[in-house]
Design a protein that fits this description.
This protein is an alpha+beta fold. The chain has 14 helices and 15 strands. It has helices at 3-36, 46-51, 65-71, 117-127, 184-190, 194-197, 209-236, 254-280, 296-300, 313-322, 368-375, 442-456, 460-464, 466-502; strands at residues 78-86, 89-96, 101-105, 133-139, 156-161, 167-172, 178-183, 327-335, 338-345, 350-356, 359-363, 383-389, 414-419, 426-430, 436-440.
Length: 503
């Protein structure tokens, strides 16, 4: 047999049997993908967390931050220092360099008691605005808490919220704060949404190689099936002339003919969605950053310090309240060696509080020049270009909370820095907070297009046309679903025929 004929025959066989094996999975992927447009995987967004906190009171609120830091017993410099509310009362949350938290009652300056069942219930009631709650025990990790960001808070205490908006709340055993909420309706939709789409029923841990390679293998097989299907569909279609039946397709059986036609119409989007799903798993680390990563410690220029006028929360909050800004959280920070406090309110807004010889200044955001001294220390390479951003670009943009990265804060204005390193690293600094919000080298930017764009169509102008984008994505998903559903029928008929012949 001629090599070309054998190759074509092999292509037919590969598509036939990979299609039979994977068509039902593809049906589930398309259905769950549509659900994920509107219901995301459970996460506690910064806006939900801040919105549940009471405003800090300047009068008789707290002992000075430096005294709480001294009494905390943290060995060496602290990694972070935050004044927030736990169980409706102000507490200092101090994280040491070892990653462990020390929680201090801000009213007395004494260590807070260990988090027990009653503390978890009190925190849940505060978060759920006094809704009835019951204790649900402790878990180290379950189907909703795979995130590595929760590792410092494990084990987690569970509180079940009753009433009109039932939910599961997970309380940190380290800080006593709610660190994850999973509304019951969101949980139920997730069984036909993200939990099904990413095959989380096979995932047991935050880092699970078995689950990772299962998804990679299935996505790779689906990609091969789509590519071979495109080849077969094009080979079998009569672009000039017709078959004896009078049609462009040789297939007479309705399911085969519809699979052929819908496959030609939607094979491109089926291929790109399966391929981008494969790319999301970063197989073999192909999108890992190649060189040095930005040094955030060098950017900060030291550990958080509570000194002088910035040591007293009452003096910090007084000018904020005079401007009508009611802080629910204060975080002591450093930028290029300069101490400041990031104040957040319940709406997610922020202010920068800076101490000086003449008192306290309150800013809405940093200027570009303010962060350049620290930004130049991020990498041991020169800054090739710097751009002030008043609008989003194709890498730095915000998503709706339902999206996978919907909890990531992407605020404007921002400063974009391109470094002259071999990896062409690009860094985005949130000027409202001073955070290094994101960094991407060349490999990671390629991964952004092969996964995020192909899978989600998430460039800013598409996201701005949200209703049109959703309508197109749903229409294309229905097309892919039709391709897969006809494949299920064809696979069933073929398997039944094969089993009969084998018997």
């Amino acid at each position: 047999m001629h090599f070309g004929t054998r190759a074509k025959r092999l292509t037919y066989l590969v598509h036939r049997w990979t299609g039979v094996a994977g068509c039902l999975l593809m049906v589930l992927w398309f259905i769950s993908g549509v659900v994920m447009l509107y219901v995301g995987y459970p996460k506690l967004t910064p806006w939900e967390r801040l919105g549940a906190l009471p405003a800090l009171q300047a009068a008789a609120c707290c002992v000075p931050a430096d005294r709480a830091l001294e009494r905390s017993g943290v060995q060496g410099a602290a990694q972070s220092l935050v004044l927030s509310s736990v169980r409706g009362a102000p507490h200092y949350l101090i994280r040491g360099q070892d990653g462990a938290y020390r929680v201090m009652d801000a009213r007395t300056g004494r260590p807070a008691p260990e988090v027990d069942e009653q503390a978890a219930l009190d925190e849940a009631r505060s978060f759920a605005h006094a809704a009835p709650v019951r204790y649900g025990g402790t878990v180290f990790e379950d189907r909703w808490t795979h995130s590595r960001g929760l590792d410092a808070h494990r084990p987690l205490l569970v509180a079940q919220v009753q009433g009109r908006a039932p939910a599961t709340l997970y309380v940190s055993s380290a800080t006593g704060q709610v660190v994850m909420d999973a509304p019951l309706s969101q949980q139920r939709w997730n069984y036909v949404g993200a939990w099904l789409h990413w095959l989380y029923m096979f995932r047991n841990h935050a880092v699970d190689p078995v689950w990772s390679w299962l998804v990679i293998a299935l996505s790779a097989a689906g990609t091969v099936s789509a590519v071979t299907g495109i080849c077969v569909g094009l080979w079998r279609w009569r672009f000039s002339g017709r078959y004896k039946s009078g049609g462009k397709s040789p297939y007479r059986a309705p399911w085969m003919r519809w699979h052929h036609i819908t496959g030609l119409l939607f094979a491109g989007i089926v291929f790109t969605w399966i391929l981008s799903g494969l790319m999301s798993m970063n197989p073999l680390g192909v999108f890992n950053a190649a060189g040095a990563r930005p040094d955030r410690a060098a950017y900060q220029g030291g550990p958080p310090a509570a000194e002088g006028v910035l040591a007293d929360p009452a003096r910090i909050m007084a000018p904020l309240q005079a401007q009508g800004f009611h802080a629910v959280e204060l975080e002591w920070r450093m930028l290029a060696g300069q101490p400041y406090v990031l104040a957040r309110n319940a709406a997610g807004g922020s202010r920068l509080v800076i101490g000086s010889a003449v008192g306290i200044r309150v800013l809405e955001h940093w200027e570009d020049a303010d962060v350049m001294a620290g930004a130049s220390r991020l990498l041991p390479y020169p800054v090739a270009s710097a751009q002030h951003m008043a609008q989003y670009d194709s890498y730095y943009y915000s998503r709706q909370p339902e999206a996978m990265n919907g909890a990531a804060e992407r605020r404007l204005p921002a400063l974009r820095l391109d470094f002259g390193d071999p990896g062409q690293t690009r860094v985005y600094i949130d000027l409202q907070s001073g955070d290094v919000a994101m960094s991407l080298d060349h490999r990671q930017r390629v991964g952004r297009w092969l996964f995020n764009f192909l899978h989600s169509w998430d460039i800013p102008w598409m996201l701005a046309a949200a209703h049109w984008r959703d309508a197109v994505l749903i229409l294309l998903s229905l097309g892919g679903l039709l391709v897969s559903a006809t494949g299920v029928v064809i696979g069933y008929v073929r398997l039944r025929t094969w089993l009969k012949a084998w018997r």
